[in-house]
Amino acid sequence: MMLVSSLRRASHAPWFTSIVTVVLLVIMLLAGAAGYDGFLSPQVMLNLLIDNAFLLVVAIGMSFVILSGGIDLSVGSVLALTTMVAAFLLQHWHWPPLLVMVTVLLMGAGFGAAMGAMIHYFKLQAFIVTLAGMFLARGLCYLISIDSITIDDPFFTAMSQTRIEFAGLFISPSVVIALIVLAVAIWMAHGTRFGRAVYAIGGSESSAMLMGLPVARTKVLVYAFSGFCASVGGLLFSFYMLSGYGLHAQGVELDAIAAVVIGGTLLTGGYGYVAGTLTGVLILGVIQTLIAFDGSLSSWWTKIFIGALLFVFCVAQRIISLGALRGKPAGSAKAAPVGASAGFSKLS
């Protein structure tokens, strides 16, 4: 009885979905190892990171947006726009690679900041503003060119072909960049005032304002960071594909949201671990790898499995929310987000 009671209490805790995500990842890996020879080989596991480095970076930016109680549907289009602008500047205007990278990163951050400012100061729904941003960024891609632009710049080619080898294994430079972004993001979320403000705003924006937190600045910075991460993801995607194209990264914004939610971050905001996003991205990668190893299933089964997982995790999040409400005395207020650096915080 005590074990059942403990499990029931744990199921209502905000960290429960993060634990479930890790357990699910382990089960999927063991199932793959049991069904397919070589599935758990170290290089196959590293290939998960190589193939999904750009998605990890985009999902990290999305994590901050969702933690703040918002949503960003523009990240896939910003990623595609980054590849197009980078390819155009490199191939047609012959800009130096470093200047191109700085330019597209500033472009992404500025695009996100503009959306964040509109959301906060004009009191517009994030869904609508970022949906408009999605159409705008995707349309700008075709304004540059309706065709794919091949990148043959030596630096981009080197980044695409370079292998960082160790112990007979290898990873790409994009994996290193993605892991650095992840480490910085974890520190930002759990070790800075900015991170604590993000959690507080996601819990209750009105309470955060009463506490004197810089709500306006934080919301603009959150969307600026998401746009910045989308542009970093665009550069990594450019290294991966060596081209810019308006059709690149279609649906990536939905994959990023799925990775964040499956990684344990609540869509309502205020609860979640940025590190959990890595687990979410790995689960998406494992699903793709299982289908590739099977060989008899269409790639569309990836979307079916991801959709089913999303349904399960959304229901689990709802159960957690209802459990938290049932366990809260009527009229009581939640604590201030002093524990954000240790994990979660939530206000109401």
From TrEMBL:
Gene Ontology CC, one term: plasma membrane
Primary residence: membrane
Record region (Disordered): 329-348
Keywords, ordered alphabetically: Cell membrane, Membrane, Transmembrane, Transmembrane helix
Membrane topology classification: Multi-pass membrane protein
Protein location: Cell membrane
InterPro entries (alphabetical): ABC_transp_permease (IPR001851)
Gene Ontology terms, MF aspect: transmembrane transporter activity
Segments traversing the membrane: 12-36, 48-67, 74-93, 99-119, 126-146, 166-189, 220-242, 254-274, 304-325
KW rRNA-binding (keyword) present: no
Protein name per Swiss-Prot or TrEMBL: Sugar ABC transporter permease
Organism (species): Herbaspirillum frisingense GSF30
